């Protein structure tokens, strides 16, 4: 029988090969439009997820699984072994010609031990990084290089870079950024724009075993297999940079961060303007009511409307956003601007989200008459 690390590496490599096949067949050398690129990412995600789930079921049938592409099963909380997988980390980059900064994540969490085995595959680079089998490459550059998300860089990162005398560079995929630090191509990876356990479990497992520092941006440990798998921020860096970076982040940040449920509601509201639902977690059975009328019968239908629905296209801004949370419920109140040529129409919205676990179960909206 293979070890857990060997299994993680084998599954990550096999999923990566499958993703390369799908990408070569669908992408080729011709750039896709935004919608087609997004659909390619979804197809790759689903296919790789099936491969990983089947492989884990065959090799470790008694273990639980937490996957980005599967509904969360609360039974994992009673399991002593939970595989945390991201079948395609960096689905946006996956759909773009020439991009190599996407990855496959496979990690094993064990009760009382944390992440004990992990693999990160970067298929477009033909590389698989395995916990316990790689070591971080030392660097001696005069100015540290900090990697950030190319779509959601931390608001404080420029000030942090000035404070520690560093340069900032964007890159896709959490796994790609973490492995770039491991290879010595960068010195730190800082994230504060919202993530889930599957975004960081495997990269952190590999990075920690390789000798890098990994923590939340406030210095607290990264905890996995939590009841709610939202894990919003992350610091991976050379050990000698941990103290100055954590001190600098503490100086540049302040105030409370979103709770997991508020963060999920915020992602949904952000998508009203961006029409990007890649970070929106909706249950398959999710439904939506608007002023008493049912306007969505499933998570997929609601997601499709947010991305392509004509009724959402005029939305230009969300303003004065406030949240209130109690128990498993979140209420958001905000003003919504809609542009029609030179005219802007503003409505007041109260939106109630039922979020019993790791997905939004239902949405109830009250839309007040337009404000002129």
Provide tags for this entry.
globular; 16 strands; 3 domains; Nuclear Transport Factor 2, Chain: A; 5-stranded mixed beta sheet; 372 residues; Fructose-1,6-Bisphosphatase, Chain A, domain 1
What does this protein look like?
The chain is an alpha+beta fold and 372 residues long. The protein has three domains: 4-129, Fructose-1,6-Bisphosphatase, Chain A, domain 1; 145-252, 3-Layer(aba) Sandwich (D-Maltodextrin-Binding Protein, domain 2), CATH 3.40.190; 260-367, Nuclear Transport Factor 2, Chain: A (Roll), CATH 3.10.450. The chain contains nine helices and 16 strands. The protein has helices at residues 4-26, 34-59, 91-94, 157-164, 174-182, 197-209, 239-252, 260-274, 299-308; strands spanning 64-67, 81-89, 103-110, 114-122, 127-130, 145-149, 167-171, 188-191, 213-215, 234-237, 282-290, 293-296, 315-326, 329-340, 343-354, 360-367. The strands form three sheets. Strands 12-11-16-15-14-13 form a six-stranded mixed sheet. Strands 1-2-3-4-5 form a five-stranded mixed sheet. Helix 5 packs parallel to helix 6. The longest helix has 26 residues, at 34-59. The chain is globular and about 60 Å long. The termini are far apart. 40% of the residues are buried.
Q: What is the CATH topology assignment of the largest domain?
A: Fructose-1,6-Bisphosphatase, Chain A, domain 1
**CATH class descriptor name of the largest domain:** Alpha Beta
Query: How many beta-strand elements?
Result: 16
Estimate the strand proportion.
25-35%
Uncertain stretches:
none
- At CATH level 2, the architecture of the largest domain is 2-Layer Sandwich
Straight-line N-to-C gap: 69 Å
Report the biggest beta sheet as strand number plus sense, adding barrel if it closes. 6 strands, mixed
Give the ordered list of helices and strands: HHEEHEEEEHEHEHEEHHEEHEEEE
The tally of structural domains comes to 3
- Helix and strand content put the structural class at alpha+beta
Nearest-integer average pLDDT: 93
> Any idea what the CATH superfamily of the largest domain is called?
Fructose-1,6-Bisphosphatase, subunit A, domain 1
Principal-axis shape: globular
Helical amount = 25-40%
């Amino acid at each position: 029988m293979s070890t857990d690390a060997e299994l993680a590496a084998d599954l990550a490599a096999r999923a990566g090969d499958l993703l390369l096949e799908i990408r070569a067949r669908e992408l080729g050398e011709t750039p896709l439009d935004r919608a087609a690129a997004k659909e390619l990412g979804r197809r790759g995600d689903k296919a790789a997820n099936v491969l990983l789930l089947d492989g884990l079921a065959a090799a470790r049938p008694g273990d639980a699984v937490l996957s980005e592409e599967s509904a969360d099963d609360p039974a994992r909380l009673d399991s002593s072994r939970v595989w945390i997988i991201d079948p395609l980390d960096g689905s946006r980059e996956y759909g773009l010609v020439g991009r190599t900064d996407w990855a496959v994540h496979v990690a094993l969490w064990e009760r009382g031990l944390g992440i004990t085995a992990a693999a990160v595959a970067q298929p477009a680079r033909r590389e698989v990084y395995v916990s316990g089998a790689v070591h971080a490459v030392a660097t001696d550059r005069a100015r540290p290089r900090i990697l950030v998300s190319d779509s959601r860089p931390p608001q404080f990162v420029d000030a942090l870079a000035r404070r520690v005398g560093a340069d900032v560079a964007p890159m896709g995929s959490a796994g790609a950024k973490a492995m770039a630090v491991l290879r010595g191509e960068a010195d730190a990876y800082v994230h504060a724009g919202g993530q889930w356990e599957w975004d960081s479990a495997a990269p952190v497992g590999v990075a920690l075993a390789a000798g890098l520092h990994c923590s939340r941006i406030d210095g607290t440990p990264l905890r996995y297999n939590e009841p709610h798998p939202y894990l919003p921020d992350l610091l991976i860096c050379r050990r000698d940079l941990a103290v100055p970076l954590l001190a600098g982040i503490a100086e540049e940040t302040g105030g409370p961060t979103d709770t997991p449920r508020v963060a999920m509601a915020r992602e949904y509201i952000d998508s009203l303007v961006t029409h990007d639902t890649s970070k929106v977690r909706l249950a398959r059975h999710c439904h939506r009511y608007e002023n008493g009328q049912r306007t969505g019968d499933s998570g997929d239908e609601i997601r499709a409307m947010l991305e392509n629905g004509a009724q959402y296209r005029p939305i230009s801004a969300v303003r004065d956003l406030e949240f209130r949370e109690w128990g498993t419920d979140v209420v958001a109140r905000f003003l919504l601007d809609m542009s029609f040529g030179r005219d802007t129409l503003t409505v007041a919205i109260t939106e109630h989200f039922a979020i019993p676990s790791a997905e939004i179960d239902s949405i109830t909206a009250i839309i007040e008459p337009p404000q002129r």
